[in-house]
């Protein structure tokens, strides 16, 4: 079932097209990934979906309803974890959650109960009496997530929740995302870390320069570069002319070398090992190792844009 539908969405800031005609849908119960480098338009997309920003063009539907017709009703269904931490440093963890709870209209025992539950989910139960200014970066992120969960949203929208935090907090957040999803929460997860998106997401939209350049499951995305598998051959030393000899092989698309490594990009799924080894056999050198690169989202991005996901 489609929970959220984004249709030909566009957002321009003066002459910058932050989001340039994107379309995708998020199904109930999935973890939907928005993967893209800095400036791809991820946060702008998130801000529009969460009704905080008006689009220049296009529409967003939640359960079939235009979200801008009744933003208040939509906000009740959504929990938003913004990229910038939204907490009061001089207040304790508990007081911060109380503040956010009040904004959502939660009061009294119900609020207390919810604060307890969300603090437990993010693993901050014993830190609620500490002032947020004494929290680590990771703890602040986790409190931010707790705040977004207070009103029991149907969908959780997270904007790069693991940037700049310690590995332990990062793992905790990734576990929390999986755990929430297991219990039925739909999640939109924004990141420029492809490993996280690969690990978490049911379907992934790769964004670049305001556009969705690819969309699908990890397997579907990796299939885009199926015909461009890479083989890395490490030599004791690279014999002269070998690069030229390898280039002649029918299945070889491209030959690169770096130090003692030759990197072959293959045209089809075919590895042509026999041909490759034949060419090497005729030389004085020997192969120390053969490494077939596992196709990754990083490689998909590189293939589609000619640039690395991370600069
Ligand atoms: N309020 C604004 N005014 C002008 N330009 C903006 C504004 N917000 C975003 N932009 C521009 O729009 C583009 C997309 O920005 P956005 O923050 O959505 O990207 P992002 O994918 O979230 O990047 P990051 O990974 O750095 O968070 C960028 O070029 C950015 O400079
Ligand atoms: Mg952003």
UniProtKB/TrEMBL annotation:
<protein>
    <submittedName>
        <fullName>ABC transporter ATP-binding protein</fullName>
    </submittedName>
</protein>
<dbReference type="GO" id="GO:0016887">
    <property type="term" value="F:ATP hydrolysis activity"/>
</dbReference>
<dbReference type="GO" id="GO:1900753">
    <property type="term" value="P:doxorubicin transport"/>
</dbReference>
<dbReference type="InterPro" id="IPR003439">
    <property type="entry name" value="ABC_transporter-like_ATP-bd"/>
</dbReference>
<keyword id="KW-0067">ATP-binding</keyword>
<keyword id="KW-0547">Nucleotide-binding</keyword>
<feature type="domain" description="ABC transporter">
    <location>
        <begin position="4"/>
        <end position="234"/>
    </location>
</feature>
<dbReference type="InterPro" id="IPR017871">
    <property type="entry name" value="ABC_transporter-like_CS"/>
</dbReference>
<dbReference type="Pfam" id="PF00005">
    <property type="entry name" value="ABC_tran"/>
</dbReference>
<dbReference type="InterPro" id="IPR027417">
    <property type="entry name" value="P-loop_NTPase"/>
</dbReference>
<dbReference type="GO" id="GO:0005886">
    <property type="term" value="C:plasma membrane"/>
</dbReference>
<dbReference type="InterPro" id="IPR003593">
    <property type="entry name" value="AAA+_ATPase"/>
</dbReference>
<dbReference type="GO" id="GO:0043215">
    <property type="term" value="P:daunorubicin transport"/>
</dbReference>
<dbReference type="GO" id="GO:0005524">
    <property type="term" value="F:ATP binding"/>
</dbReference>
<comment type="similarity">
    <text>Belongs to the ABC transporter superfamily. Drug exporter-1 (DrugE1) (TC 3.A.1.105) family.</text>
</comment>
<dbReference type="InterPro" id="IPR005894">
    <property type="entry name" value="DrrA"/>
</dbReference>
